[in-house]
Amino acid sequence: MPDTPALVSWTQRLESSAALDPVVRAVRPAVDALVAEPWRRDLLRGAWLGHALHPVMTDLPVGLWTSAVTLDLVGGPGARPAATRLIGLGVLAAGPAAWTGWAEWSGLAQHEQRVGVVHAASNGLAAALFASSWLARRRGAHRRGQVLGLVASSALGVGGYLGGHLVSARKVSSRHPEFSAP
Fold first, then answer.
1. CA dist list (Å): 98 to 56, 61, 105, 124, 139
2. Is 148 domain-assigned?
């Protein structure tokens, strides 16, 4: 039997970490308020779409930020204004993506909520770093903005890995009951 990959072991430790429970308890009231109204819960979870809205919404900030970092790496000085705009748009798109994620999180089991808070923290850190990158660029410190964007991308990668774990390994996404039939 092959060794368990380090990331799998780390993720399993997150799932079983009771140290994350105070964070889960602290966040739960705000999230419960977010999804208290059935119409809002259904809207944010994508009931009208037939499956979870969160993965669709994350494509916007992730795509915008990835495009900006790509421009930083290969676009040259002429691409700086476009990269700055893309980062700003990604920051704006991050809020709605987070709301849909918290709506999904509200229906998870405790071990999945533990992973979910680390996923959210990592993505929140990425959003804050990208916001700092945008500010640096707007103030003329484009090189600093580029470095902040690269660091933010690392945090975004961790968040993406954990989100992928929840969706792919734990199958936690909302979906219409019709999709449960063979």
1. 12, 10, 10, 8, 27
2. yes
